[in-house]
Amino acid sequence: MAVSEPGVLELVRRGHEERVLRLLGEHGALSRKRLETLSGLSRSTLSDIVGALQARGAVVASTPEAGRRGPGRPAEVLTLNPKAGQTVGMDFGHQRVHVAVANAAQEVVGTATRGYARTTSWARRLELACALVDSLRADLGALQGVGVGVTGAGDARKQHAEAVVEHLAERWNVPVLIDNNTRLAALAEMLRGAGSGCSDVVYIRLSHGIGGGIVVGGRLLRGALGTAGEIGHIPVPDGPDARPCSCGGRGCLETYAAIPALLRDGGLPDLPAALAALEGGDPAVRAVFDRAGRALGMALAGVCATLSPERIIVAGEVAPAVLETAEAALHRHLPPALHHGLRLHPASLGDEVGALGALALVAHESPLLSGYPDPSRKDGS
Amino acid sequence: MAVSEPGVLELVRRGHEERVLRLLGEHGALSRKRLETLSGLSRSTLSDIVGALQARGAVVASTPEAGRRGPGRPAEVLTLNPKAGQTVGMDFGHQRVHVAVANAAQEVVGTATRGYARTTSWARRLELACALVDSLRADLGALQGVGVGVTGAGDARKQHAEAVVEHLAERWNVPVLIDNNTRLAALAEMLRGAGSGCSDVVYIRLSHGIGGGIVVGGRLLRGALGTAGEIGHIPVPDGPDARPCSCGGRGCLETYAAIPALLRDGGLPDLPAALAALEGGDPAVRAVFDRAGRALGMALAGVCATLSPERIIVAGEVAPAVLETAEAALHRHLPPALHHGLRLHPASLGDEVGALGALALVAHESPLLSGYPDPSRKDGS
């Protein structure tokens, strides 16, 4: 029997804590007796667990005056502490950091952003981000965790992830969860944006590169090897001579539909010039964007056949110029029984989407709740 | 508060039962005291739950003689009842049914198969399958459920699924779970075949059609709209003039790598002739199979970029003839950071794979354990 492993009982205990917090989150206020019934925990176990949660400020006991019936002491109820359980989200892009703070009810109580140079060190980026959080003057008295979005996937992300986690965990003494910021954007769009009400979402962002994030059953998909959601590197060659991609692969979607490819193919200086040419009806530029749209539609057809998502969300500066062509290509490549009439939805959140996703990472993806291993350890290792 | 909904307490109770069964399955034998600790359930709740499980014959109490220490009554231990909790699996192909029976330890105690004509009615197919199960003379005294694999996806599967579920549920008075038989094969290969030890598996079968199944985190992926895993319909055109597919889409993998496409492209009468021509070094036939292999590799590159699986398994009569080319194409289309050096593994189970997967559907995919809705209701509805 493997029950004597060290840590098993601690895991069991953390599981109980999560269960109690989840029940209080779902039901609002519960008496101890009701919590006992719903959790199935023994009175003594529950008493230990609730005591620890109260000591940490996560749970509070109160005595509602209304609805008091009969003589004797009114029944005490337990609730999540609305003033506790804050989360901090940070999204480190190539040239700016966004931070956001949420209260226990997952209401965003403040956001801020600050630019930096591509060459800015990680030590300095962290300093700027922490100063931004301080500037929001939010109550972080019962901080539950910090979520962090960073660029890159696999080993590229791993390089700075460890230092970031260590720095922030030391500063606040709370769990720090880290993931790719495009994945976090997918989570945020599902919870607060264009995927609201859905739990199976494919999110793709068309910008200087093409990234993606996939939510299955309300959870971020990371994949066994940590690189799930790299939709920009799905091969969609338009002929046998597949273009080489900067990733080292061939025929990737990114070689058709990312900004550098579009500018090169259209002989254009920058995206505003490209969009102006489209606006002016330039047929050569239209052809370049239409090819990108068809490539996107083909990649998404493959994703649909593989995943059967509920909603597809397309973000990034390029999105509006290719959405229509891509949707038509998606519907041309798949039969109705597989595309289910899915539309391509434009993303609805702004540049703060990554920081909002980082908040959600903490609130929704606690390793114990989600059944995933610690995301910071899935990082290509 | 939503706690007064009818059924909540019953769900809670079933959740407790599942937890107890899972702990006993993981640990083998447990004392009541140890089960109390690991489950976190109160003594009285646990006593209720164990009593009900004993009454149903799912759990037995025994007193091990060995290892007895000290005076007094030896400690009683609880185990899953090895004679109870049988499962029946059935796989209805186009021209034959396979059945399998497993005991509570998920050991297969018998399998059988029987052919029928494509035109055979569903009533007759069910009759044949039930007679086959009877012929195995297995003890079904504590049957836990019946898993059924059928061909087709979405609406095509839905047409007969309801009648099958109704017939079998009435005959045995147990839950009946139904899914696509290629998906079930994916589950079986993960548990007992080429995916053994993995929990994130992509399975693809190349035959008269091309089907697939995806397992993520040990669970079958069905997708929000029920059609996940249709890898045969990923578009992989080799030029702008994508071939129309029988599904109604264009450029699907199936138009290159399924048996009918290979025979047509090679001008060949049947697969044995095609394989003999390959064996004999016929360059034109080799070229046809290599194109199919490249198309497969491209489709799997897209699946890898999307899902980041742990293992890829390729089944079906066509598999051996395209595996090498497909693996090379997969590695050419993706960078190492995304293909992770993944190989293509040949499937290792025989034609009984679907029936084994149907057993696994019951044992591993109980709706309560998996968090999925009832799979029979995900059937394109």
List keywords for this structure.
homodimer, about 375 residues, alpha/beta, Nucleotidyltransferase, domain 5, 3 domains, 14 helices, elongated, WH_DNA-bd_sf (chains A, B), ROK family transcriptional regulator (chains A, B), ROK_cs (chains A, B), WH-like_DNA-bd_sf (chains A, B)
Describe the overall structure:
- Chain A has 381 residues and is an alpha/beta fold.
- Chain A has three domains: 8-80, Orthogonal Bundle (Arc Repressor Mutant, subunit A); 87-184 and 354-377, Nucleotidyltransferase, domain 5; 197-348, Nucleotidyltransferase, domain 5, CATH 3.30.420.
- In chain A, 44% of the residues lie in helices and 17% in strands.
- Chain A has 14 helices and 13 strands.
- Chain A has helices at residues 8-27, 32-39, 43-55, 122-135, 154-172, 181-192, 254-257, 259-266, 271-279, 283-307, 319-333, 336-339, 353-364, 367-370, and strands spanning 29-31, 59-62, 77-80, 87-92, 96-102, 108-115, 145-150, 176-180, 201-206, 210-216, 219-220, 311-315, 344-346.
- Chain A has a five-stranded mixed sheet. In chain A, strands 11-10-9-12-13 form a five-stranded mixed sheet, sandwiched between helices.
- In chain A, helix 1 (8-27) crosses helix 3 (43-55) and helix 10 (283-307) packs across helix 11.
- The longest helix of chain A has 25 residues, at 283-307.
- At the A-B interface, helix 1, helix 2, helix 5, helix 10 and helix 12 of A face helix 1, helix 2, helix 5, helix 10 and helix 12 of B.
